[in-house]
Fold this sequence. Notes:
About 45% of the residues lie in helices and about 5% in strands. The protein is of the alpha+beta class. A six-stranded antiparallel beta sheet has the order 27-26-28-29-30-33. Strands 11, 12, 13 and 18 form a four-stranded mixed beta sheet that branches. A three-stranded antiparallel beta sheet has the order 22-21-25. The chain is flat and about 125 Å long.
Amino acid sequence: MASAFSPAEDLMNKGKRGAAAYIRDQYCNPISSDARQQQINELLDTLLSPGKAIDDWETIDWCKWLMAGGRTPDEFSNTVRLYDNATTCGLVWTPNFVAYRCRTCGISPCMALCQECFKKGNHYRHDFNMFLSQAGGACDCGDTSVMKEIGFCDRHGPKAAVDKSPAPLDLMCVAEAMMPRMILRLIHHLRDNCKVSAPDFRVAIQDADAYLTMLLDLNHMGALMRHVMTSALTSPQKYRGLMDPANSSGMTEYDRYCQESHGIYQDAIKSLPNPEPPDEYKDCPSLQEDLVHTTFLEELMFWTVAYEFPQKLVCLLLNMLPDPDYKEALTRAFVLHYSRIAMMLERSNDPDTLSNRVVHVSVQLFSNERLALRMVNQLKLLHVMVISLKYMMSKILVENTLHTPNKNFHFVVDCGRPVMKEHCYWPLVSDLNNVLSHKPVAVQFLSDDTLLEMWFDFLSMFQGMNVNQREMGAHVEFEPTTYYAAFSAELEASAYPMWALVSHLRGPESISVSRRALSFCLTALQDWLDAIGFTSPDVCDALHVSFHIPLHRYFAVFMCEVVRQQGVTLQELLPPTDMLHLLMMHPLRVQVALYEILNGLWVRNGLQIKGQAMTYIQCNFCNSMVDADLYLLQICAMKLQPDIFLNTVIDKFHIKEWLSLCTVRSRQNILLIGEHDTAMMESCLIFLATLISVRTNLGLTDSEVSHLEMVTLLCMGDKTHSQLMDLMPERCGTTPNRDFEPVLAEVAQYKAPNLEASGTMQQGMYGPKPKVWEELYDPLYVLLRAVHRRDYQVSMDRYTEYVKSTKLKSSSTLWPPFRNPAPVSPDYDDPRIVLKSRVFHAMVFVILYKAVNDHNISEHIVALLIYLLEMAVITSDIPKKSANPLCPYTGSISCAANDADFSNWYETDSLIENLKTVIPRAKLVHSSSEYNLEINSDWEIASDITENSLMLNDDFDVEIGEPSEVWDLELLGEPDNDHRNTTAPMDTGSLPALPTNETLNEWDLTIVPADEVPNDNIEDDELPAHQRALPPTVESMALVPDTHSPRVLSMTEPLRFSRMPQRGTSNPTTSNEVDLLQVLFPRLGAAGVSTTDIVPSTSHCHQRIVNRESQASSGQVYQAGLKTGENIISLLLKLHSQLSGVPDSWNPEDIANSSFEGDNSASNNFSTSQQESKIGDGPFFIGQLLKKISRLDPTLKQNIIETNNKLWPRNKDCEDAQRAREHQEREEKRKKAKERQQKLMADFANQQKQFMKKAMETDEAGASGMDWDQSETSSQLTSKREYDCVICNRTTSSTDDKPMGLVVLVQATSVIGHERQQSERLQLPTSDDDTLISKNGTRGANFDYRVDEMHKHFDTLSWLLSVNLGWEGGVHVQTCGHHLHLDCLKAYRQSLRSQQRQQSLAVDRGEYLCPLCRQLANSVLPLSPQLGECSAIVRSRHSSTSAILSELNNFLKEIQRNPISSNLSVAMGKAMEEMTASTYLKYKQKHCQPSHQSLFLFVTSVARTNLEVELVQRGGSLCSSLQETVSLTPKRDCIVALFHVLAMHARVLTNWPVHKTWQYISGLPSDLATPLAIAPHEREVPFLLRDPTALLIQFILLLPLHIDQTYFSSVVKVLYNLLYYQVIVQVSFTLTRSERDTIRKLPERNSSLTPLTSKSILGLVMRHLEHTDFYDDEPSFRSSKSVEQRIQTLCLPFLRIAALLRHHLYSQSLPDIRTTQTEFVRLVYYLELVTEGMDWDCFNAAVALNWQNEDASVEVPRMWCNQLLAFYRRSQVAAKKLAVDQHIYWQPPKLLKLPREYEKLFTYYHAKQCCRCHLVPPEISICLLCGTIVCLKQLCCKQQNIGEAVQHSIDCGGGTGIFLVVTSTYIIVIRGRRACLWGSLYLDDFEEEDKDLKRGRPLYLSQERYQLLEQQWLAHRFDHTKKTWVWHRDSL
Length: 1932
């Protein structure tokens, strides 16, 4: 296209700089602008031709040079930045970017800051957090609409651009001319790649990556260039001039391309349709069908949508937001395409990513209130959002299946569709919530009728979704997962906008909009009820439920907020009563279903239904769901008739039949309820108690609600600060509670974390203060909020524990402390009004009657009922004195009652009357189908009955002179039924609480079949006594009269005989005590119930008749038409007696002196109810209730006293006799128990005596066979030590044939290799200025250097015997101290191999758990029989040193190299193999092939490693003051057993003359009288370069381990001589020339009487060595210590190892060393190097030298020096280096020092590159031993299929790696083939972890945890303290 234009070619021939300068000059010259533009257009036609690739590097470079106008692009960029006057930051980031949010500075909750702006701003003591961005974002620094100015950094804000000078006019002229064409090229590229055949849009964006990067770089130049870009993007003229297809360029080819491009563009627009809008909005630009673009920006936004928001294109658009004009233009373009975005979300293949990117854009645009309001007004943004949401949901509607499907024409969303399951609607809802957070926008939303109508239509699509049908047959085959989608949708799409809207209803000015919203909501509810056919409350809904009724909840929440905030009365807002009754039914059904699910009625629906119930009350949902439902039900309870409300509740909870006294169940109810009827009764009471007591929305302030919620959480268990924050219920989308911290401080006490001895780490926890349990703990609210019912039980257990530890020492069962409700707001009636109902009073009567007569009624039901009755008493209406004058009480009032017709049980709703009204009989009326008697049903008596079984005769309905007949009943054909039942809760005994009467006992039974319904006017008294007791027909009951033997009962109707003996004299045969509460309330369990004072009871037995066929479905049965003759007061008194376990337990004196205060209301009587104690058991609460009842009315008080006297006539003599008998029986029982205890103790003492006698006979020396520590004397005298096998439990000694073993864990270790010379910790670098950690300063690196040097200069076989390895990858052995037979272990391991469940053990590698302590082990150390044989070898009797040295020489000559073959030797060989296999090949040998010497080196090094590790665990020295406060040394060591195994192998491997070495070192004459001389081989290591500690271990292993201590001391003395001269030579190198001259001039020691000094010996050595140039160099290091101090310091490591050896081998306690200054002195005395006392002035290291004679003290050191000189002549540098670094005082290993603030560490490392792959690892991890960065779990750095972290753990830690994962704060520990999450070292201000930085709070290093981690590393305890190991399979 451009080839025809030669001017462009001429320009390009000038070169980039030349052409750019020329064009800039042209723009500066005053020629016509058209000519200038033509020149650059010709050039750009060539450069930006659509035929060229857009990412052509040459084109991009030309563009950069042309804009620079003769400068270099970098110079131009820096110049433009100088004039940057931007007031906002606007930095855009992508997901996983580290950003900050400061709630103190933020105005919008979406506010975010980049790291640089946050650091430069002042946020000290602000409430901020760091976070990893999920969807991307932009920095708001400088934006006053989003954050306060106090948080701005110094570069942004209104004041930042004040002093900026304007830019030169010609600086940007070329850029302004080029920018439209550059944007056009991008548009053309996007059009070209949008053909229908294009499979993947990502390819097109990838092709344009370099071009987009260039545009982003231009944008980063600052406000000047940004303005150029935005001007081009938003100019309609430039867009029209370049894009209008009508404009011709004059170039045929280009014009044709433009036409094709326009066609593609038009097709693309048509392929992206929008939802069909309502007719009135079809002309709205944002909703019209045909899109019209007028600017580059609008078309670019279209392509952004079409390409599904590519990340780089989004960043380009957002990066220009700091330009205010552009921000509005971008928002307008975004809104124009918003409805089409909804379409894209619906059909996207990756809706999650697309959603994040959409929100990335929208959150930046809609957070500005002014801008959002403008879009609402101009482009109908709210309408667009709601229409888009409706359209998205309308495509997935299905028929609603609630109630009767054929009458239901409502449609709801299908929760199984991808739109719901993948949350495609989330961006739209998020944006809607964002704009509704602005009050003007929310008010407009509520003021627009069309919007409200559309919105409630949208909510109707959720109303009744995800219907659950209860499975009645088999268990559901596949559990649906749709409930996740349903709950998420209601929360996000319904609740979030609801709370956003109501948050703005704050005053009378918005009453009208509130009323409008409620009106539309009611209309929508009415339409929905009509649509589902729910026109009557009687519609059956028992087998299905939907938890989703958002319309009800909108109505409830709006009504609540309007009443509370705007002063509107409730009556003005309520619908008519019939509508309110209909509204009540669905929330009530949800409540009932909740309890049905919790009680197991829906168990066949699977776990998902329980998940729905838990989600319904979960903290994120409860405010929007259960609280709203409960509020609506409370309103219904206030405004509906109480009888209607309660009857509805009874019906919906399916408890009508439970409340019946009828014995027969209707078939449908048995099918419906099954065995869960009692549980549903309890749930109904919980619901009623919750309904009347909860005040969350009825008057509590926000602060009071916060207190209540916080207390509820704390009572369910101690919690961390973050758990409390997360679990506090939230009103979705609103800001969190501002009063959180004050409330927390008021009700909670902080519990600092403790580090347990086992290594378990805790976090800082909050628990309730004591006053919480006494005053604030509300069990009902806990039940309301407890997601798991066990949470409630935990709270009760904690409450009980508190009470019994502080208040009540009794063992009685505490009742829940149900609280008196808070006052109700004046706007509402008290919901307790529902209790002012005769229906409730009848319920109370029935439940109390069953509680008294049925032992299956749980105490929790009784407690709830007593609470409800108490609330009824408190709120009851007290009659006025004038209207109801008091009259004397004359007796009980009787009332006939129809069973289950509770409305007719009492004549009035007056509680005062109904409490004393007697219910004489219940009339049962049944249909013939319901009362179907099965003649052949099989009944059995389920418990025993004796001749003393009594029934309570009613006191209120007994006629004087009525015969006192007793019916004794027995089953036909059962002659003996004394012990027939094995399922009864107790064997014998009647209830001591119940009154007995030997002279008056009756069975009062009346069974009334359906065809023989008694006449209502026949009173109970008119029936003969026998007619009341006998069944009406012969077929139904057969009686065999027998006055002496039990009678026979044959019944077709299940009966329940309740034992109620009358008060009278006790049965004289009383012999048993009974746990009364266990009998009364067996559901509580035997272990959980006890009474403090249990009295003897008569030996009566409870008889229960059970239908075998219906036993599972019927929990209890009662007499039909039972003649109760009870009132509520009498039942309360009996219940009090039952719970107390004492007859006549209630004391009438409690109310005798109380006076009645008759006021118009009961509130004054109970004004102190809030202060009264709520701590007590059942009798306490019933007594409190009786007191309250007595204060209601004088007649009630009199009735209580008289009823009590009737039940238990006062008979003091009988009571005294009863108490005396009870006391006597108790004393007899105590006496018998004491006798049994004494007999048991005597037997035990006798057995102990016999055992001791046998032990004495076995071992006359008094040695015990137990495996515990013996005293030193006894252990030395033991001939054969015995051990306990923890598998077979036999105690035996270890023999060669049947050896015992010690359980050990063998592992590789590099702990010693990490020792350094610095005493302080090395700092982990956190900035580029910090010093890097050197790898060469460790003990392991030093050893590697020495070995390399020795390998160069000496024979391999020589240097192998001169050192120890194992500093890195050494073998460490530890034990738990338990023993076992090796045969037993073999069988144990074999059994482990056959088990499939040992997933955590590598059984094939020998791993097992100690059978006793369960610690990990992988080997066993066979125990030599010689252990403990201290007298097996003759003690040294020689006093001369020469003789001892000679004997030692003979021992070494006569080493037993071939052990006797036995099971023990085989086991020792196996143990050695396991030790060898435990480390890694590269650590087993250095620079050599396997040989006897290399294997011998490995064996001796194992011993050295274990001794060095023990020294480290003791703090690096033997000073007691330096040892850790927490002991790192194991409780039981295995050094001696290990040495026995090592010694055997060391002797086998020794095939060289070890005694020769001994002769050279000790000064003994060599064999054949060869004089001492230089070693015969030049390439042997000089003795002065050999490791004395290595030689010590070699000699100890080769000598007999049980030799006399004198020999051991002699070996130490000889090697100390060698050590001393090595140190002397080393110290001499550190002296300056003047110091050496001074020492040389000292007089020589001329007599043996002259005391030895180190300086004199130093002078001798220097004089011997100075004949060469040994001391020519000045020392590189000067020590501040004196020469003597240096010598002693360098000698200490050897002395410590020698002392540990003596301690272990001879069981001698280590000396108590208090200070470091005395350590050397104490050790040389302990090791017997010095035995004579001397003055401190005379003491020095030389006095510890011990020679056999004077000649040896001169000749031997001379020989050593000559050897060194000979080596020096061969290699001067190596000799000096090896001699100077021979002994180094190493400091104990330490982990790296970490920064206190985690933010410093995170900032530096989270984006740092790996040194190997040079990539930023997703989970970057730092080794805490050396500071190396590794790529955790990444493939990039894997070598030989081993992950980098695993390989580094081998290289650095010998298989143990400790890594800090920067992105999660957690420590990962790798141990061999396992790994575990150890925990976090960094905690927040509340000492709590923040895994994965989810909260982003400032974190600080926990010194306690850091110390614990280091201790576990040093002590090798990771395997024992961490239990969560996983196999890493080399993948880390």
